[in-house]
Structure prediction request, 231 residues.
Amino acid sequence: DIVMTQSPDSLAVSLGERATINCKSSQSVLYSSNNKNYLAWYQQKPGQPPKLLIYWASTRESGVPDRFSGSGSGTDFTLTISSLQAEDVAVYYCQQYYTTPPMYTFGQGTKLDIK
Amino acid sequence: QVQLVESGGGVVQPGRSLRLSCAASGFTFKVYGMHWVRQVPGKGLEWVAFISYDGNNKYYVDSVKGRFSISRDNSKNTLYLQMNNLRSEDTAVYYCAGGVSHFDYWGQGTLVTVSS
Prediction:
């Protein structure tokens, strides 16, 4: 089974500062057939379902502010919030998709707070 | 706008069954792969099951294989999860979600509590 490990488990960042969350996969999520990394990022606020932020490692979902960006390839990925806003306080999850057979695994989550 | 509304959760004894439903609107349900994802309150997310757009392909996490069954009715824009032989470790909020390689749309979730 593919294991997704996020770091750190929690972090606190000052308003306006950069926040960086890492996600490491136990095996590559890059598919050579289409050169896509099947890695997504979600934001979950208390009492709400998760919300898709980034897919294919770096494609921002429609309507997501451009302060959110994703990078990485293969096994190592990063979610960056360039200038933290108060509304960004949430838990963030990475998620991978394995195609054969279809299997989906989430990271354990990273709790982001304001310092 | 896109809406996914789950129903059917509740308190059930171990070994009993429950069927969850998810009513979809605001998007073309019949062309979307659909999932169930669960979350123990205060914990992380766990993918449970996937069904292809036409219902011909179904996949499950190992811990529910043989006990849970995912299905859909494209004429009713509804997704289902039949849960049999429930265990205490199945206690969670169950979300329905739409997408294939990632989860574009999410419902608000329905809580299933397995307890005697």
Observations:
- The interface with chain A takes residues 35, 44-47, 50, 57, 59, 61, 95, 99-104, 106-109 of chain B (CB under 8 Å).
- The two ends of chain B are 39 Å apart (CA to CA).
- Chain B has no helices and eleven strands.
- The first strand of chain B starts at residue 3 and ends at 7.
